[in-house]
From TrEMBL, chain A:
GO terms for cellular component: plasma membrane. Belongs to the KdpA family. Coiled coil: none annotated. GO terms for molecular function: P-type potassium transmembrane transporter activity; potassium ion binding. This is Potassium-transporting ATPase potassium-binding subunit. It comes from the Bacteria. The gene is kdpA. Its main location: membrane. It is a multi-pass membrane protein.
Automatic annotation (TrEMBL), chain B:
The gene is kdpB. It comes from the Bacteria. Belongs to the cation transport ATPase (P-type) (TC 3.A.3) family. Type IA subfamily. Residues 102-206 form the P-type ATPase A domain. GO terms for molecular function: ATP binding; ATP hydrolysis activity; magnesium ion binding; P-type potassium transmembrane transporter activity. Its EC number is 7.2.2.6. Its main location: membrane. This is Potassium-transporting ATPase ATP-binding subunit. It is an enzyme of class 7 (translocase). Mg(2+) binds at D525, D529. The keyword Iron does not apply.
Amino acid sequence: MLTQSILFVVLVVGGTALASWPLGRYMQWAMDPADLPSGISGWKTRAFAAIGGPLAASSQNWTRYMSAMLAFNLVMFAVCAAILALQQHLPLNPDGRPALEASLIFNTAASFTSNTNLQHYSGEVSLSYLSQLGALMWLQFVSAATGIAALAALARGLAGRPLGNFFLDIQRACFLVLLPAALVLAVLLVIGGVPMTFEGAAIATTLEGVQQTIARGPVAAFVSIKQLGTNGGGFFGPNSTHPLENPGFWTNIIEMVAIILIPMACVWMFARIIGRLRHGGVIFAVMLAFLLVKIAGSVYFEAAPTRAFAGLPIDQTLGNLEGKEMRFGPAGGPLWSVLTTSTSNGSVGAMHDSLNPMTGLMPMVGMWLNATFGGVGVGMINMFLYIVVGVFIAGMMIGRTPEYLGWRVEAREVKLALLALLAHGLFVLGGTAIFAATPWGADTLNNTGPHGFSEILYEFTSASANNGSGFEGLGDNTMPWNIATGIVMLLARFIPILLPLAIVGSLSGKRRSAESNGTLSVEGGVFGTMLAATIVVVGALTFFPAATLGPIAEHVTTMN
Amino acid sequence: MSRSPSASIFDARILAPAIAGAFRKLDPRTLAKNPVMFVVAVVSVLTTVLFVRDLVTGAGDLGFSFQINLWLWFTVLFANFAEAVAEGRGKAQAESLRRSRSETQARLINADGEGTRLVAGASLKVGDLVLVEAGEIIPSDGEIVEGVASVNEAAITGESAPVIRESGGDRSAVTGGTQVLSDWIRVRITAAAGSTFIDRMVALVEGAERQKTPNEIALNVLLAGLTLIFVLATATIPAFAAYAGGSIPVIVLVALFVTLIPTTIGALLSAIGIAGMDRLVRFNVLAMSGRAVEAAGDIDTLLLDKTGTITLGNRQASDFRPVKGVTERDLADAAQLASLADETPEGRSIVVLAKEKYGIRGRDMAGLNATFVPFTAQSRMSGVDLDGSSIRKGAVDAVLRHIERTSAANGSAAGTAESRRELEAIATDISKAGGTPLAVVRDGRLLGVLHLKDIVKGGIRERFVELRRMGIRTVMITGDNPMTAAAIAAEAGVDDFLAEATPEDKLKLIRDEQAKGKLVAMCGDGTNDAPALAQADVGVAMNTGTMAAREAGNMVDLDSDPTKLIEIVEIGKQLLMTRGALTTFSIANDVAKYFAIVPAMFIAVYPQLDALNVMGLSTPESAILSAIIFNALIIVALIPLSLKGVAYKAIGADRLLQRNLLVYGLGGLIVPFIGIKAIDMIVTAIGLV
């Protein structure tokens, strides 16, 4: 049983880690072509420059890169909101889905623009096919591409080069990275039994002779980018626990691999662009270590029986099976829960609300850190923030004014990095405090006590980490929830992209110093330890009081 | 090198004023300079007000909240105390300096250049000419325009041996407050009252003008940012607790907040900065800004002058190399005779070597009826004339010319061509080995060559190995030819050398290094060093140097000892390391504090949370009190370390980080667990709560 779980984890995580290496190499080729547009293989740059027209004509500094990114995302947000608001009048609506409520439209548009995919709606009952594909799936591509573009720009800046052009980068990320990968995955999913059709819901007669409406649609296309782009918003409400999104053991493995594949490859892409593969290796190792600890924790705590069945004549020797899909095996649920929250994906393969209390803490830790692989592109950017803080302290400890890759880290950089880290804490803790103390949150709970608190905490955590998974058990389609999480998602998306790019902008105005054996090495185990310690102390400990009143209190009061 | 002893912090002369200073620094305007401690003071005021309110209404646990209040104020006072102690040590030094600045009278030379009149020293303006005679105090900084004098500079260097100052050249600068011992000088004033060298020194060591350095500002930003994060972490707790149906007293929230924010490093930060400057001052080096001290820690390339830094100032005879047909003893004998009256260090070293090798003892010059022929720039030789015999020693080419001249004059054979060739071969040999050849001739006959050797200072090779481990490249600057320079560079173990260096070469070398992204340090004294001193990231001017050099550099070495550049780098590194180590310690402490306070805080709501009380602290109150006491006492406990600085070891950056991470990171993690538990046991035993 234990051996089986370990093998399962090694297969999924280890296999993906191996696959991320060549993909990282490919992504660097795609995102950061070394050749000039006039070169023999400059065809892609030339093609994208032609499409981008004057917008893609010149290299941008960080403010212009950022403005381009914000403007682009604003347009996408508006288009998405418009499609959702007018879906009843638009084509591709075979089941005649009606209009959505205004705050839900705002929340959903914010959710998909910000790569969060928090879903306060249930896709198969509320949305037309045009809404699913034209608004949401489109955003699943471009929001993920935005993250990859931002990381490429950040890495170029750190390499001492111009940041590049956003309109070129987003095309590269969409057409050269996400689209091919999504096509391959969608084909695999269709082979695995996931439907891909534009026909309306199927009407079936069950064995009991009852008429049943089975929602379906272009599921495979939707699911593949949802997994690859750390989006997580499912075609169906139950997400990847739904048999038509995730029919069996092998599709489950493929979908899990797809969750962490690109976030892992982003680390290698970053390392290749800055030209420091060993540094990338250290970052990768630190991220992997955190991931494995969370997985071990969740598998371990989930091996205990659930309190919900206490006293019932149910065999619980396999651990907590409440809310699990048995076709995925016993470790599938907890493993998915960690992968999806470590990467800001947010799709679910088991019901997080039913996890044992301490198992439920693991996804929250993943989202609090939001950098142990993290979202596509942005996970590595978040890690950069921890690196700035870690390097600052470590740099002093070797008796030099701190520097990273030869760039001197001074007051401005430290300020920006801390502001970004502070923002995440503010959204999670501030939001939770307001909703826990007011009827906005308290009245929407299905559970009382620490578990109810965890639900509120989880919802804000998920929104701020741009994750999108839900603890559920929360009646979250209310005006306050829709507006609050909508705002949090947008701010929590763009602040941690804006501030790191500002850091790079500030760094690149400085004289870069040479590295020697007297400068801080960012390539060894010592630096890795320092980085991990920074993540724990600066990133995780802030949430300790909240964790104590949520999962930990629930654990100590119910599990013993 | 006169390194003044460091004052112990337990010295009553420092301790008593420091305690008073700790209270004086409660002034909000002073506190506001330190964001972390300012925040602590603000919440202390808040809790004190609440305590007074509770005292009036008789509500709450007064004993407990009184004690927390008390320790909150202690936290602020301890921080002030740390700063006051650091300043106190500087003040003692400033006091002695200020005494030398006592009101002086100046003899201002009238505009017509004739006659002088007495004016107050403080009224002098830049450009005024003054006359200073033996026994008088130089009224202000200036440059000698006429005359030469011996000057006692003990006021600034602590060194009582007088130094020579003269007009023109590289020794023309004089410092206000120093005393002319002999002769007279005319001085053009270069600094107005209040901005003289000693004024600046006083301000620097007192810390009055202390400006925060870039790294200190950045660290303050980090600490302020962390403080904000912990504001968030604690300010949201009441809402969380309210959800769970509990309420947390403000005093407990404040206790958690104050223990979590980085008070340890916040309290000691300015003390560390002052102590770093102070370490330099005690080392007789004045940094014109804290920025320069930080830059010293970042140095990648050290430019070191060969003479006086890498080699002893004087060459020494190390070998006698006779030509064929002459014994070494004969050569030694002749060389010794020629050098007996030669008072130069080279000459003396020849006498010493002759005695060491062949036991040739000193002879009475008068008894030999000898006349000494001194060295002149024309002959470039020195020697001795005995009865009918003459011995000369000097540069090889000069000696060869001498032979030609004398042989032409008296018609004797001008030394065989063979012996000339042999002589030149030996000379080349010596040059290649980094030595200076000195030919010896007796009555027109070439005897051989003396090997004058640049003596590489003892231990300097090891220093360079150490520097290399620190990641610092050393470049030797010398006026020698490349061959000689290469030999000495190899012997001393420097990484590179610049031979036949002109001031322009130096400047170019610095620019090239900087273009490669390196920070460069150098020292210099001459006016022509000024551009290079200004260009270097750390330029240490010798106190004996010109005013131009002193103005161009960002440090002045009062002992004029160029070797100190190495120590300056170490002091810079030590300053930054101390900051980093205490920051790490401070932040690592938070883990234990969470585990002390968080369970205690929520135990009323969920009693089972006692499982988190890993230290087994006896009661929630004692847990909170112990944490806040530990938080305050650790400041005092670390004052000595912050003043002394974390020891720097040249073991390479990676191992240094590993070591400091272990000591201050892991230590910072573990120490508070033990400390809080111990305090809890004491608090419980004596029944404080």
